[in-house]
Write a structure and sequence with these properties.
The protein is α+β, with helices and mostly antiparallel strands and about 550 residues long. The protein is built from twelve helices and 23 strands. Helix 6 packs across helix 9.
Amino acid sequence: MNRIERKAILPEVDRIECKAALEVSDEGTITGTAWPFGSPDRVGDIITKGAFTSITTRLPMLFAHDQGQSIGVWDSVSESDDGLQVKGRLLISDVQRAREVRALIREGAATGLSIGFVTKKATARQGGGRTISLVELHEISVVPVPAHPGARITSAKSASAVNSIGNTMEDELEQVAAPDNAEIEKKFETLSNEVKSFGKLSERLDKMEAKLNRPTAANDNRPIAANDNDIEKKAFFSFIRSGTESLSSDERKALTVGTPATAGYLAPETFSSEIIKLLAEVNPIRQYAKVINIGASQIKFPRRTGSPTATWEGEGDARAHSQPSYEQVPITPHELATYTDVSNALLEDNVYNLEGELRQEFAEAFGIAEAKAFIEGTGDSNDQPVGLMTNDDIAEMVTDHASGFPASNPADVIVKMYHKLPTYHARNAVWMFNKNTLELIRTWKDSDGRYLVIDELKSDMPATLLGRPIVECPDMPDIEADAFPILFGDLQGYRIVDRVSLSVLRDPYSRATNGEVRFHARRRVGADVTNPDRFVKLKIAEAA
């Protein structure tokens, strides 16, 4: 198997050998010597006359051997006594990159030709390098630095290109001698290191551009605090204890001032993320529902309401028309707020985790309010999220007994609920009910006397019913007439959107006569059912 090699600007890359250089006319026509016979390249290789025996016509013209940068075509490639002569055209009328390369050639930024080939036959040369007598030519590229110093553009149907010492390209071709290989290798190594450094710089610029293109978040896209020395975190907790009067100018700048209506300060992101974690512990629905952060006042989810149908038709029969239909489910974040009072003495003498205490206070207040709204929230009319149990599109099952479940085989109702959902959604679904309902269901057994509710061996795993997890929700109704005590469904069909991170306002005046400082906390949260077909709820029959 022949080895494909590359020796050009980066000699350590072992792919395809590249030897060459060039320049261009207004029409994009290039004429030059892609490889001079009789003299070695920068690594000591010589290609002899007759080596290019099988030349494919209309070879591709690339820039720097990059297959993603095809800039033209070589119409004529032939051997002469002096070397491999080429003539081609830059596709300046159709390819933007070709026009850019033409400008590079004119300014002397790209003056070389470089050939890419596979060596078929070669022998070692004394002192290094090879004598190559047979090659398979693949492409010829325009390059800034050719592997062979004599591989340059010789004409461009315009004014002759002049080099830095006043000679034309043709004169330079005659005067070039084989350079010292050791010196060339040293220069190549230096150039290689520069190219690698440029790659790292390019990567940094890409990251900066990506960051600038991100939507502006509430914290002005500042990085999350990485450790306790973060100035934002220090400024926030100094503000908690003493207010803005005690802050330095840098700490004041580190705080993000809220809108005039709230005059608050945003908590650093580490604080906010810990709040979310505690919310999930207090409000179990967040652990299973789909939660996203948004940067607008509303988000709309498309939902398919109808699908096309196919019908069997006979030959020549008219086809029935059908098409899918869609609607949009808008979710608007609503404001959730609370406050807590802390004594001045506690703020001044605090030696324990004051911020942790506040975090716990806010998490409990927000978690309790959220959990209730996610179950029975009434929607935009009351500035609340839409709750699971108030959504009219979720399918219902009704028991035959106003007092609850039938005396004989009460678990049959649960089995019917499970099979009410499509199989795909049922195997991702969870059971939701309160502790009183769970107490009743825990007493149910199968015909062999085994309890239907199975407690997992690991403490962090939920109990299961019919193989699906049980989510205990204190805000679910009790078992009574005309109530909905049980919900079964895939909570990925319920979307929760967080709009604003935790914002805290320090009010030292309202409770000043009591020696206390009041802290107001707020955030914006919205929620709604986006896929009602993933749920089924149980309704207890109405009383007679």
